Amino acid sequence: MASVRSFWFEHRFELSGSLFAFGVFLVFIAVLGSVPQARAWAATISIFENMIVTLGGWIFWEAIVSALTLLAGIVYFWDTIKKGREFERLVSTTSRELFLRNRKRIEYLVTVMPSQYGRRVEKKRLELKIRD
Hints:
Elements: H1 2-10, H2 12-34, H3 36-42, H4 46-55, H5 59-91, H6 96-101, H7 103-112, H8 115-127
């Protein structure tokens, strides 16, 4: 289980972006299957026509899954960007006091972000001459 967790955090940016892109693709397919004008256009392209025919009456459920996937992708991607920016703000300080004051939050962010963030914290500790 630890390897799945580490993979999830180590590839956080790629996974959140991929989940978002997959959600966009699923929404596109749901629109093709639900909107009559889009369905007529999809009939001219064989791969889309095959997808719509294969989904058939399940297009409603595919639309629900696509909306949930897109929402999860947006939230996870936004959270990743937010935590990355917060980390940059906390680590970019030149003050030893500020760095030590924000130590708990920095350590938390290091645990949920890729390992490169941990290396940056170690480099900053050496720069500010902080010993643990």
